[in-house]
Amino acid sequence: MAKNLELSYLIDFYGDVLTDKQRDVMDQYYNADLSLAEIAENFGITRQGVRDSIKRGEAILLDLEDKVGFARRHRELQDKSAQLQALAKDIEFRNNAGYARSDAIAKDVEQMLALLETLDD
């Protein structure tokens, strides 16, 4: 069973919809990087029981993300926010350097506004 880093993100984002046991099993598997055998020992169940719990949890998380897409949207907002921050720092640098009217500053402002507009969609 190959580990999918996206599922680690979904656990953090939607973990509360899982049962406590499913969330703990998946957290140990994806975030703590424990093996099926180690998790089985921790919970006093079989490796197959751990695998089944992980597969059910994965199906729940992937289905939820497919239906509502909150995690994807959250990641997009974070990425755009980082882009805006970089643009703002660039503007700050250019202004501190004492530049006169700059086409580059105008372009950066235009990009910032375009990104902000997409956040409202």
What would your notes on this structure say?
- This protein has 121 residues and is mainly alpha-helical.
- It folds into two domains: 5-68, Arc Repressor Mutant, subunit A (Orthogonal Bundle), CATH 1.10.10; 72-120.
- It has six helices and no strands.
- The protein has helices spanning 5-14, 20-31, 36-43, 47-68, 70-96, 103-120.
- Helix 3 (36-43) crosses helix 4 (47-68).
Descriptive labels:
121 residues, mainly alpha, Arc Repressor Mutant, subunit A, 2 domains, 80% helix
Brief overview, please?
This protein is mainly α and 121 residues long. The protein is built from 6 helices and no strands.
Q: Note the gap between the termini.
A: 38 Å
Mean pLDDT: 88
Structural shape: elongated
CATH superfamily of the largest domain: Winged helix-like DNA-binding domain superfamily/Winged helix DNA-binding domain
Named CATH topology of the largest domain? Arc Repressor Mutant, subunit A
Largest sheet: none
Order of helices and strands: HHHHHH
SSE layout and pairings?
Elements: H1 5-14, H2 20-31, H3 36-43, H4 47-68, H5 70-96, H6 103-120
Helix pairs in contact: 1-2, 1-4, 2-4, 3-4, 5-6
